[in-house]
Each structure stands twice: as structure tokens, then as C-alpha cells.
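INFO batch 0412 | record 1 of 1 | parsing
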Amino acid sequence: MVMWPTVTLIGFLVLTALVIAMGTQSTARYERERAERTSGARHATAEPVGAAQAA
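INFO prediction complete | emitting C-alpha cells
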């Protein structure tokens, strides 16, 4: 009687844990690749942002 709700709950929890684990790995890989791409492209000097200053 209580077996099917228990099996359903355990299955749901296992699948939720699997999705979280896969998402964590994917996000970590994306952040690592993004950091590698942008680390070499940075400039040594800051670029002005906004309106130009009058001289």
C-alpha cells in the first residue's frame, strides 16, 4: 500500500540529485573555459566609460 509512493519519492530524489550533479559539473566547466578565454584578452590599462571629458 505504501510501497508505490515510497518508490516514487525515492526515484524523484535520485533523479533530482542526478540533475543537480550534472548541472554543477556543466557550470564549473563553463566557468573554467570562460576564465581561460578572457584571461588573455584583458587590457593593461582601463578604458574610459561614459561621456568624454572636455579638455
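INFO post-check: The helical segments are 3-39.
INFO record closed
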